[in-house]
Amino acid sequence: MPSQLEAAMDALIAVFHHYSGHEGDKYKLNKGELKELLNSELNDFITSQKDPMLVEKIMNDLDSNKDNEVDFNEFVVLVAALTVACNDFFQDQKKKSK
Ligand SMILES: [Ca+2]
Ligand SMILES: [Ca+2]
C-alpha cells in the first residue's frame, strides 16, 4: 500500500500525463491541454477567479523557459502554489472557528 503522500504524488503525475499526451510533445502541456486540465481538474478555482484571460495568465506565469509549453517541473510550481493557498485558507478557517 502506498502512503497517502505517495498516492498523491502518483495522482499528480498521472493527471499531468493524462492531459500532456493529447497533442504534440507527450511530456508537455500546450495551451489547449493546459486549459483542458484546468477546466477539468481545477474547475472550482478557475470559475472562482472569473477571469476570461486566466488560462493565458497561468500559462505565461508557469512557462519559465518560454517554450510555450508547460512541462512537469513548471506544472508542479502551480500545484505547490495552489496547495499553499489552500493550506492558508484552511488555517484561516480553523482560526475563525475557534
Ligand atoms: Ca502535449
Ligand atoms: Ca515551458
UniProtKB/TrEMBL annotation:
Pfam family, any one: S_100
All residue ranges annotated as the EF-hand domain in the record: 50-85
Keywords from the UniProt entry: Calcium, Metal-binding, Repeat
InterPro entries for the chain: EF-hand-dom_pair, EF_Hand_1_Ca_BS, EF_hand_dom, S100/CaBP7/8-like_CS, S100_Ca-bd_sub
Record bears the keyword Flavoprotein: no
SUPFAM superfamilies, per database record: EF-hand
A GO term, aspect molecular function: calcium ion binding
Name used for this protein in its record: Protein S100
